[in-house]
Amino acid sequence: MGLVLDEEQTILKDSAKAFFAEQAPVTAFRKLRDSNDETGFSRDLWSAMAEMGWAGIIIPEEFGGLDFGFQGLTLVLEEQGRNLTASPLVSTVLLGAGALLEAGTEAQKNALLPMIAAGELLMTVAIDEDHHFDPANTALAAKADGDGYVLTGEKTFVLDGHVADKIIVLARTSGEKGDRKGLTLFLIDGTAGGVTRERLDMLDSRNAARIKLDQVKVSSEAVMGPIDGGYDALSKVLDRAMIGLSAEMLGGAAAVFEMTLEYLKERRQFGQLIGSFQSLQHRAADMFTQLELSKSVVMTAATAMDEGSNEIASLASLAKAFVSETSNQVTREGIQMHGGIGMTDEHDVGLYLKRSRVAEHTFGSAGYHRDRYARLNDY
Amino acid sequence: MGLVLDEEQTILKDSAKAFFAEQAPVTAFRKLRDSNDETGFSRDLWSAMAEMGWAGIIIPEEFGGLDFGFQGLTLVLEEQGRNLTASPLVSTVLLGAGALLEAGTEAQKNALLPMIAAGELLMTVAIDEDHHFDPANTALAAKADGDGYVLTGEKTFVLDGHVADKIIVLARTSGEKGDRKGLTLFLIDGTAGGVTRERLDMLDSRNAARIKLDQVKVSSEAVMGPIDGGYDALSKVLDRAMIGLSAEMLGGAAAVFEMTLEYLKERRQFGQLIGSFQSLQHRAADMFTQLELSKSVVMTAATAMDEGSNEIASLASLAKAFVSETSNQVTREGIQMHGGIGMTDEHDVGLYLKRSRVAEHTFGSAGYHRDRYARLNDY
Amino acid sequence: MSDLDVFREEVRAWLVENCPPSMRTPMGNDEDVVWGGRKANYKNPEAKLWLDRMGAKGWTAPTWPKEYGGGGLSKEEASVLGQELGRINARPALASFGLWMLGPVLLEYATDEQLKEHLPPIVRGEIRWCQGYSEPGAGSDLAGLQTRAVLEGDEYVINGQKVWTSYADKADAIFCLVRTDTSTKHEGISFLLIDMDQAGVTTKPIKLISGNSPFCETFLDDARTPARNLIGRLNGGWEIAKKLLQHERTNISAGGFGAGGRSAALEEVAKEYLGAEGGKIADAVKRDEVVRHKMLERAFAQTLKRMSAESKAGEVSPASSIIKYVAAEMNKDRMELLVEIMGLQALGWSGDYFSAEGLATTRGMLRSKANSIEGGTTEVNLNVIAKRVLGLRDHQ
Amino acid sequence: MSDLDVFREEVRAWLVENCPPSMRTPMGNDEDVVWGGRKANYKNPEAKLWLDRMGAKGWTAPTWPKEYGGGGLSKEEASVLGQELGRINARPALASFGLWMLGPVLLEYATDEQLKEHLPPIVRGEIRWCQGYSEPGAGSDLAGLQTRAVLEGDEYVINGQKVWTSYADKADAIFCLVRTDTSTKHEGISFLLIDMDQAGVTTKPIKLISGNSPFCETFLDDARTPARNLIGRLNGGWEIAKKLLQHERTNISAGGFGAGGRSAALEEVAKEYLGAEGGKIADAVKRDEVVRHKMLERAFAQTLKRMSAESKAGEVSPASSIIKYVAAEMNKDRMELLVEIMGLQALGWSGDYFSAEGLATTRGMLRSKANSIEGGTTEVNLNVIAKRVLGLRDHQ
Hints:
CATH architecture of the largest domain in chain C: Up-down Bundle
Structural class of chain C: alpha+beta
Strand order of the largest sheet of chain A: 1-4-5-9
Largest sheet of chain A: 4 strands, mixed
CATH topology of the largest domain in chain A: Butyryl-CoA Dehydrogenase, subunit A, domain 3
Low-confidence stretches of chain A: none
Number of helices of chain A: 12
Shape of chain C: globular
Radius of gyration of chain A: 21 Å
Distance between the termini of chain C: 63 Å
Distance between the termini of chain A: 32 Å
Number of domains of chain A: 3
Shape of chain A: globular
CATH class of the largest domain in chain C: Mainly Alpha
Oligomer: heterotetramer
Largest interface: A-C, 41 and 46 residues
Number of helices of chain C: 11
Strand order of the largest sheet of chain C: 1-4-5-8
Low-confidence stretches of chain C: 258-263
Number of domains of chain C: 3
CATH topology of the largest domain in chain C: Butyryl-CoA Dehydrogenase, subunit A, domain 3
Mean pLDDT of chain A: 97
Largest sheet of chain C: 4 strands, mixed
């Protein structure tokens, strides 16, 4: 397949649509937000999602997964985005399982992948140290100590970082902040000695944490992938995350567009449906066009991932940059076309705008990805 | 004054409007273009403009000028732009007289300014050597030779360069291409030995020339302004040129907007005036808004020039960048809103688009001026 | 010495004497703004003192006639007063929709009796007014309003609902557009003043996406007001409304929009959050966006100045739509650009981790989305420019 | 070996034998395009040979039925043929509005007799067709056309004027929308085929701002055509017209637009004209614009692929408006960006000083302005998307 869903994928998409609409619609997220719940998502819901097979959707069958393919995961993420559902799908599956598949030792895979697939283990990767995404800007130090390492430093904007059972930490084993060489991935326990975690209260009310590591000791078995070669290993994990998050953003943008289109068809001003005003029609047509283009870039990137294309990195940056711009446009227009009602906390469109702004900056903004795309293509 | 015209200025503007409409409307420029006239403008018209006092409008009375002020010149330029009139106003007055006023010796001023004011002398400044404007990128060499200099190199895009009686050449007396230091201005005869000139056939059918200097000998009296300090002297001349050209572009953009607005009010499609379609209304309203803003930046910059403000450089770049973007937008929309008829050579809107593209790149594009503005303001 | 110079000396001397020290310091936040009114709560007693002194001179409304409590100053004198207040960085003694919106309209349409009743309390900050325009069913289509006012004896009885009434929960009275004739649209609207201290008027704050609640829903259930509180002609309210909207557009735009991050210069924020190389913002692409914005801001400021120089004193024109359109879109873009520049620091909702500047940017970005909706949407402003300025017509 | 593989072997062998060497080289310029027709002038005799051979096989129209001169291939076989032609970089044997536009419409609406008459000459490139749609008074409002056709005996007599007829001065025949009923708008239009080799048809090239004249005005003064050249139902032409417009939009967009600079990659041009530092385009701001454009081009190509995968074979849909809209605006932006990048080199009109690439960019930029006008304006395409795809309605 690829650009058109096959039968299995269509069934998956339909069941995801039904699942989220029933069990995790926007009202559920709103309730979660208003409850100021520290966990930041529903563990029951996550169990249900795992039962659907989604926690293990990209995990090979030998590790207890569904091995359905990456495209399948993007379909679930799109529906999740459409409903603003808070879940550890990005942190645990895209990042955690992704990193294990990409760089995990057999022992690590055997131990953790089945638990992820069963919905029993929450994972994440800790990358950012600054207010802009750039993995090379890692300073958190991992010093060799006997046959292990001691990690000291601080990470921020770690998705689900305060609840993750295992955290993969990008640390500097050599070189200096800014170097792509000299980075290594370490797998640590979320509750290891020396780890302090603090949930950040983000604009989108989703989970992100600040994590301090103070002399955290790990054995050499905690190393994932090549020593000093963590940047490249992580890049492949991040490609997956960028595409997956783009799918989530696409779902959110599509939802905003649909609710806006509905509003254009029911709201009257000056004795006319506002959707009959040509300037709004043209802007709606342009939004739809951008969404169609966005859909193509997400599907193409997801397919390339499943096919092991050597263009994945480019396609991932294309997807993240393009969908970010579309999401920004659609959420902006969504508010404007709703007028005053869209400005109220009571209306959902604002929730989507908030999620969009945070997602745009997660794993690199549109500007970051345009630069990356050009670099990858030698200009 | 400043942001509102005083009585004298209003009279000047009205007489310029009447003059160009009668003596040099677009049809005159079209005829000139179609005749493939090598001179590229009408000498009779230039004499008439000189009689109106415009050749000497910024020249002090002691040198035979009108000393009306720079704002007055921008009003004439705006009307010239409105009618696409080809004249040496930019080359001879903005650049030539501007450079003499800024950096000329008393002898040079005494000799040349009265001739300019009388419309008897054509001048220009030769700056560009490359396809992008950047005076620092000057390589044309001026080597000391006895008590004079020998100039060798090539200039391009010299406005009215093939007909100018005197050419002020930006040459390198020390340093290397790219350095701002080490540049000097030299005044040479257009017909001096070793000078070869070739008119370029430009998109806008206006005058620009390629000039080769092969061992052109000049005396030390040919030097204008400080040796090695020509960049700063020229920058002040260019500020004037940028503001003046912005005024011309503003006039052109205003003309396109007006003809487009007329068309919106007379052309029918689907049984309606096309100007009654809301999407075109909104785009027209935005164009009008950008024109209003453009008018403000041009008037503010021109006023600052007359007042000797220390912000002239910033205001000049603001004007050039802002009006370029507006002109680009308005000419693009002008063609689109005219539909097929706007694509024909017979219709005037295409002539304005062509002039706009060339003017946008003359004395630096919008991008160049945004960079310059930021530099001037330390960021 | 000219009369103006004499006046300047007098003002200067008076200010030395009367402007309290704490009133010459920059305002810390929105809470330092003095709105006056019956429910006013002055944390800083000097704020009250400053208001009382300025109010007594009539200098909160410097050009209003003295007989109505104003300062009775000429335009030139008022300008001198403004300069002298600016010279000592004096805080505004009073922020007030009564001063900005209602007063100018009353001066144009009200009777002498009405002026004597209503202007002096506005000048002295004794009453806080809010504006009852929009209704749930009528947003941009203001004239579609349904709130009914019926004359019973010498009172109007009003029923209906207003929405987007700024600070209605803190106001003492509301100036309202009401329907007094249902058989026609624009010609069936009147302009009424209504005291809010009655059972028939209730308010409910609206929580915005920014988390703040500057606006309310206002419910009018058999609310009553004396018939003498009709301003202008019965069914002549639409003309007044249009004037008021122009005042509103000009005021909103000139005053700058909403909250957040206006103080720090964009380019300095960019240098701090994106780094600087050789004095330049390190990210060349963002730097270009910053320049674009700075240029637009400057062009806008120059245009405000030019339009003010061109206009007759006190006149408002369709140009207000141009101003409002640009100001709204510009501020929205500025806030989005700031978020882009600050990244994670401008994506927080609360908490110590985020800088105050970052949080203000986040909230400010959200608040700014209303700029192109409140006081006339961008779409309505573009319609006004197209039709009233450019003379384009509707489908026939 | 599957049937398709066998077919591939056959095609490959045939091509080795029959595709002349010069037809395997890249085309130099527009003059190398073979349009066929009675007036064709083959500078390169191998071009004629190549057309004759392909025409005889019916492979200029690979999927058309054999009985009408086509190749009679299945969709899969046609795809194999296309791949093999691409593999040897074969030039298209024939460019033709007959193949792209008229043929598909005839196959849907014409009688067997009409198909037998008209399709074979198209396949063999013996006739060159042009399209008579737009009229001076009716641009986007195509259905407002006024050209009248009146039946006299067994002939239609046509009077009126068409405009924007591509290459009408080089065409042999024109397929035309004409008015056969003046009492109604859309339902009074018919689709007629008219031979242009008659006194009643004259053409006049239109000079464009780019200096080229790809379009003509076409005057019909008592032009005549046999009644059997009516395609489809009398007064049923509007349905055909809409189909044709979709074909046109898809063809225009998929084929890329106009002339100029398409060959060189944008990023390479940028490196050359703006300089490169460490392999990057030296101007970071322009580099960002280049990436934006490259990303859009790629997203567009992926979308074409996706839509083609989604659609039933040969079907055209309102999606053609999306494609046309994006393709047109994208190409215009590309050309403006190229001019920005090349600066002075792309501001020349003629002469040795300017590179061929530069001059092609200048002309191409000018030509590109028509992209959002020809074959349905951007405004009309946005209308179609809003109404037919999104279901938004007109004012009621």
